[in-house]
Structure formats: structure tokens, C-alpha cells
Amino acid sequence: MALLEEHIDRELLEEAERLAKSILRNGESLLYQAFSDLKEDNTYGHRWLFVTNQRVIVATPGGGNEQVELREIRSATVNDYTGNGDLELETSSGTREIIRFSRSCTEQFRKAMLVINELVSERAFLGKEGAVQIFASNERRKRTTVMWLLGYLRPHWPFAVLGMLLSLSVTGLSLVPPYLMRTLVDEVIEKRNFGLLPVLTLTLVSIYAINTIMSIAQSYTLSYLAQKVVFSMRSQVYEHLQLLSMGFYDRISSGRVLSRVTDDVGRVNWFLVWGIPNLVINSLQIIGIGMILFTLNLGLAVFALLPVPMIVIGIPLFRKKARRVYHKAWRRWADMSSLLVDTIPGAIVVKAYSQEKFEVKRLIERMTMVVKSNLETTRLNLSFFPMLGFTASVGAAIVWYIGGGQVLSGTLTLGTLWMFVSYMWMFYGPIQSLTNLVQPLQEAITSGERVLEIVELQPDIKDAEDAVSFNFKGDIEFKNVSFGYQPYIPVVKNITLSIRAGETIGIVGPSGGGKTTLTKLLLRFYDPSEGSILIDGIDIRKIKIQTLRKQVGIVQQDPFLFYGSVAFNISYGKIDSTPEEIIAAAKAANAHDFIMSSYAGYDSHVGERGSRISGGERQRIAIARAILTDPKILVMDEATSSVDTLTERQIQKALENLVVGRTTIIIAHRLSTLQKADRIVVIDKGKIVEVGNHEELVKAGGLYSKLYSAQFAEAQEAVAPLVR
Amino acid sequence: MVTPISDFLVQLNIVPAEKLKVELGNRSDRVRITLNGIVYDNIIPKLPFPLSIPEFVIFVQVQTSEKGEPQNQEICMLKDFRKLDEHSRHALEEVLQKIYFIPRVLKVERLETSGDEFEWEILTDRGPRKLHTRGRRNVISMGTRIVIIDTHDNIYYVEDVRKLDGKSRMLLETVA
Q1: ipTM of the complex
Q2: Contact by Cβ (8 Å): A588, A624
Q3: Which of A6, A109, A198, A553 could form an S-S bond across to A626 if both were Cys, CB 3.0 to 4.6 Å?
Q4: Contact present, A571 and A582 (Cβ < 8 Å)
């Protein structure tokens, strides 16, 4: 999994692996590592922090390590300074700064701090996998990627072969006209052979005709192949993405996933259907024309090659420089447009302070920059391509001079010289395109690796082989459950709780306390690192995932609605539901009335991400979706926290319809939501701190009663100005 | 006891077409229905799925509370009003036509897709119409049916895109 962490490159990870191997004692296992980019002397450099089950070590790549035994450490702190920070350890012999780092690394060291504190407070939380694999396996070679990519062509091999054959024929045919030209000059014009002229002309026309038809067939075949390949690749990647566990989506942002599905697959597609044929065709052309040139006239061929070094060396250099210059031009353009985007909507401010002239001046300054950088791109283009053309022309002129001499002295026929010059011009094309191919080819292979990484990932959560399927009664039991998204940083610690079928349980506590994590564990988006969760006495790891998720309904704080009609969104829980069922679910969720009053009832569209409707309406649609399948267990995760009190009451009413006979878990921020719960569980810092009903907990005077009085006071304050 | 969806389903009171009689009501947007021998007046017929299942009707009785606020009560639902007897069906259709003005597109004469808004000139079963839509999101394909929602939330629909003439189809294909 670490291979997805793109901000740490592979070389660094290898360095860490080498260092760790040389430092670790026998029986010592690495629990956490962090990379720092600062040295002790305030300059940039590499330092590594290793946290093991015995020590905290700061390693220097050149050798020389500092270490503190865990048993000496009392606590760890991260201090933030401007542009840097440090990790401080409090030991029995005082406080010491152990490693410094720039702010780019702060996040890693905060986690290191958490890990160290967990370890030293003897709440040590060790996943049962033991030492977690931190290092990326970098055994993947470019070759495997290429082989995997070519595998996509296999099912379509007749088209691949046909495309290749057509490409070869087109290449071959394009080599014929210069040959005909020689015949024209030597046989027809020199020998005044009128009979051969129409034959030659007809041959030429037919060759062009055949070539045109073949080119059309070639382009169509290759593009057909492209569409087929990209289709199967995209659907494979997409299908795989749907199978991957939530853990994957937590680690890698959806934007990056999207870019892999679209951009990377696109680039790979380009490589397969355009890159490879071009690579082959261009190489063949170079070999073919080169052989013709050298067999025709060795002496002339040397001069014909004159511009080749310039193409091979010059074009990559040019591209490198061009990229910089074009980016610069693009940024200047962006500067100018951002000013417009700023000042035109801000016209009222500009006018209020009568800064019109100032704004015009600013814009003119930026436009001047745009003009300058655009001229720079023009100058760059002019500095290279005309030179390249000139070199080629000089080569041609030399060929003319020498070849002309040979024609005059009778060692070369005029036709052969004509033919030679034509081939010579044809020679530069493929060289140039081959040079241009190198970089996109590399990019495509990198993209291929990125796509392959995703396809090779195995979902962490899969059905067990002996997984069962049954109708839930609704008993839930958490048995010593511990879990952390990051190894060694527990979010939920040793939770034990049993919930009877039909009970309504409220879960409250400060945010970040692990409430939502519990529901994610119940739905098996993740598996607990320790302990187990049982439904009706059966470990959920032994229940088919589909069975589990069908019978546990969930409504989230900010429910996601898909672009589509209200009916589509409600029926998402049960795609084959009847219209009556959709209406019934909406009625149960107290959503029917507002749906009927919108412009097209259940056919109304909810717009982009549900933006056409209000938060409370969205919640109720989500509730309808959750209960359409009649789940035995219903989880409401802060479902009412983003709506006003009036809407909350409506949702509350909807809930009252639903909790009867269902096991319901309500996570709430507003405690008023929970007054009717059978039991309330208070969770703080991953642990259960109190359990009881509302009255009991208020009386007990613990965390719940504090939260309750705080909210009560808040409500009083809010009302006070109104009643005064 | 769990309250399953089926309980709510029963409360919907879905009735078979033969048990229901529909007549015109006292206002142009109301009907009078007779169900199991009981006459209900002041009924507004409503379509929960006006675009995807236009034959599904909910009969809502409008009453006024003591405070003078309207209080609506759903009397029953009918899954397919086309199965009603001839007379009832005509009466219901007349009122529905009044409440749901959703013209059927017969022809797309012109479609200008440059700029933020699409500009349409169409011929509908209710006559010619010029309209504006915003973005492709408001031209919705539902199988062979296409629903067009203009900038004022007026709704138009193409019953079966395959049955349109070539030019209209071609123009629609550029946006739907």
C-alpha cells in the first residue's frame, strides 16, 4: 500500500530500508518511520526517525545514529516553528529535541508523536499482523507493465495484425513513387519513350489510389482497436475500483483515482494503438530508406545524413526548452485572466475607491507580460526549425553538387539522382517522429504502471470462504474491538458493548472520538485489528458482505445523492423496487409531501450532488433510501446535525416511524435527539466512558451531563435575546 | 414488531381501476370520485411520476381546516388510470391535462448550442414554442424518452426519439 504514497519517492524508501536493516537489533521490529529533510545544523539533508518496539532512533544516511530507549521516554511532543518544527522527547533525564524537520514533514512527525505516546503509555496497540509492511515493493519492472499492456491487444489480435499489415503496406507503397520517377527520367524522358509514359502515369495514379484506400483502412482499424482496448481497460479498472475496500478510498483521494481512470488510461491507450505502430513503422521506414540510400550511392548517402545529428540531439533539447517557455507563457496568460476574474465581479469595490485607472494600469502591465512571453515562444521556434531546415537544405545542395557532377561525368543517371533526392527528403520524417515519440512513450509507460498498481491491489475486505447468509434478528455485540486507520494509532480501543434486537442506542461524545468508526466497522468497511463484532452471535467476518450491508441501513451526515431523479435516488437501495414501494419508503421517511410539491414529483431531478434540494430534504431522501430494503439494523450517523431544529423535528418524526422493532444506532451531536433512546453510550478518545439512559447519565454528573449542560446553556443563550 | 415497508404499502391504499369512478368536479382542477360506494368531493388528481409513469395517479382530497389552512388527505392511489372505464378516464384526463401541461415534442426545428443556454425552436402537440434550456443536465434521456426542462421549469417531452424525423433526431443527438 505504501507504494501509493507518491510524496515519498522510491529512492528514499530504499534508503530507509537499508538504514533500518543496519540498525535494528535481533527481535526488534519497526513500527513507524518518518523522513525529515533538515539536519541538526539548519541545512537541508536527510534524516530518518524510526520508532521500534524498543527504541526511538534518529538515523543519518552517512552513519551515526542517535537513540533513546522507549522505557526512558515519558512523552513526545511536536513543536511548530516558522518553516520548521521539532520532535521533543521528555525522558527521565530531561527534555531533548531529537529531530528537526521542515513543515513539509510535520504531518508524519505528528503521527510519530502519537505512536510514541501510545507505546510509552503502555496502551501499546499492536495490530495482529505484527510489524506492518512499510516499504514499497519496487520489484515491478517496466517489462511487466509493457507485457500487461500488450495483453489487452490479445483478444483483438486479428485487428492488431491487420492494422500492422496495413501500416506496412502503406509504408511500402509510399516508397514506390521515387522509383517510378527514376524510370520517368531515365527511360521516358531521356529515351523519348512515348509508349511508356501513359503506363507510368497510370501506375502512379493506381499506387496513390491504393495507398489512399489502405490509409483509410489503416486509420479505421487502428482507431477501432483503440476504442476496443480502452473500453476493456477502463471497464476493468472501474470494476476493480468498485470492489476495492473503503480503506483504499481513504488513502487515495477521489481526484487521483479519477485521473488514473481517465488520463492515465488515455495515455496508455495512446501508447498501445498509436505509439507502438508508429514506433515499428518509423523504424522500418528508417531502415528501408537508409538501405536504399546507401546501396544507391554510398558517397551521397553520407551527406544526406548531415541533418540527422541535429534532429536526434536538437529536438529533445528544443522540447525541453519549449516546455519551459510555453509554461511561462501559459502562466502569464493565467495571471492576466485571474486579474479579470477578480476585478470584473469586484467592480463595485473598484468604483467605490475610484481605482479604475489603477486597474487599467495593472491589466496593461500584465498584458505586456503576455505579449513578451508570447514573443519569446515565437523566437524559440524561429531559433530552431529554420536552422534545421537550413542544415537539411545544405545537405541537399551538397548532394546536388556532388550528384550533379556524377551525372555529368556519367557515373550516375539523372533518374537515380532524382530518386536519391526524393528518398533523402523522405528519410527525415520518420527520424523526427521517432525522436518526438521518446518522451510520450516514457510517460505512457509510467501511466501504465500507475494503472497496473490499481488493478493489482487486492481488496482488504473479502468474503470468507465459509461466509453465511441469513435473516438478521438484530442483536449486535462488540467484543473488545480495537481499530486504527493507521497502524499503531488506535481510533477505537477495546470497545465492548452488546445491543439487543430492537433496542435504540444513542452514541455521543466529542468529535474524533471514534463514533463514526464504530459504524464503519459494523458495516465492514474495515475489519477491527483486534476483537470481533457479532450479529446474532455470528462474527461479521463470517457473514457475506452483501447480506450484511443489505440488512444494515445507514444514513450519513452529508448523504450523497446521485445526479438523477428523486425516484432513482430512493430506489438506489433496491434497484428493482416498484413505484409503490418508493412512495411507501418516502412516506415512512416523511419525505412524500415535499417530493410531491416539487415540479415533477418523484421524477424531479436532484441536480448536481443534490444541490437543488435543501439539507433536510436530502436527509429524508437518504432515510427513504436506507429503509427501502427494510434493514433490521439502522445506523443514523449525525443524520440531523446539519439541519435546523424544525427540520430535525420532522426527521425525528420520520425516525419514530422506523425505530419500532429495528435495532437502531443513532450517533448524534445534538443531545436532544437522543432523549428517547433506550440507552446512551458516551465515547471519548476511542473508549466507552459511560452507558445509561438520559436521566441516569445526567444524574451521574460525568461527561454526558457536562455536554448536556453546555448545550442546554447554549440553547438558553440563543433564546434569551428573543424573550427579553 | 418491526414496521416494515409493507405496512406503509397498505396505507397507500392502492385500488383496482374497476372499483373507482371518476367524474368532473366543481372546479376545473378537481374531480369527484366514488370508491366503495363512498363519494369524495374536491379531489385533485396528482401524478407522482409525471414523466416516467404518467398513468400512476394519487387522489388527494383538499379540505380546509378550522383555521382556514388547506389540509390535504390522500384518499387512494391508482396504478394505471388507462384501465378506468371510458367515462371516468375522459373526466380524469381532462383535469390532468389542465394540471399537468407537459407538451409532447413533435419536431425540433432549430437548436442553437453556442453559449451558456441552448436555444430551441420546437413544434409540440400544443403548437410551436421557443425556449431556452441551461446545460445538458436539463435534457434528460429516459430510454427512448427525452425530457426537456427549460429555464423556467416548464417541461416538454419526446415520447419516442426513434419516431422523430431525421433532422430532429440529429439535433437532439447533439445534446441528449
Answers
A1: 0.90
A2: yes
A3: A553
A4: yes
Is residue A23 within 8 A of residue A9, CB to CB? The reply is: no
Q: How many residues does chain B have?
A: 176
Q: Is B67 on the interface with A (CB under 8 A)?
A: no
- Given this chain, do its domains A2-120 and A476-723 carry the same CATH topology? no
Residue position matching grid coordinates 518518518: A34
What's the confidence (pLDDT) of residue A656?
A: 77
C-alpha A224/C-alpha A231 separation (Å) is 11
Degrees, nearest 5: CA angle A660-A664-A669: 125
CA angle at A498 for the pair A701 and A704, rounded to the nearest 5°:
15
Task: Pick out chain A residues at pLDDT < 70.
Answer: 1-10, 122-143, 251-253, 255, 487-488, 607-612, 641-643, 715-724
Q: Which CATH number fits domain A2-120: 3.30.70.330, 3.40.47.10, 2.30.29.30, 3.40.190.80?
A: 2.30.29.30
Alpha-carbon gap: A578 to the closest alpha carbon of chain B (Å): 11
- Smallest Cβ–Cβ distance between A601 and the set B3, B50, B140 belongs to B50
The dotted CATH code for A142-297+412-456 is 1.20.1560.10
Q: In this structure, which CATH number among 3.40.50.300, 3.90.1640.10, 2.60.120.10, 3.30.450.70 belongs to the domain A476-723?
A: 3.40.50.300
Contact with chain A for residue B57, Cβ under 8 A = no
User: Which residue type does A516 have?
Assistant: T
CA B159 – CA B144 distance, rounded (Å):
7
Show residues of chain B in contact with A587, CB under 8 Å.
8, 11-12
Which among A708, A712, A552, A566 has a CA at the least distance from the CA of A632?
A552
pLDDT of residue A720: 59
Average pLDDT on B150-165 reads 90
A581 CB neighbours in chain B (<8 A) are: 5, 9
Amino acid A722: pLDDT:
54
pTM (predicted TM-score): 0.72
Least confident of A10-14, A397-401, B106-110, B119-123: A10-14
**What pLDDT is attached to residue A251?**
67
Cβ–Cβ contacts within 10 Å for residue A163, how many? Answer: 25
- What band does B76 get if pLDDT is binned at 50, 70 and 90? very high
Give the gap in angstroms from C-alpha B56 to the nearest C-alpha of chain A. Answer: 9
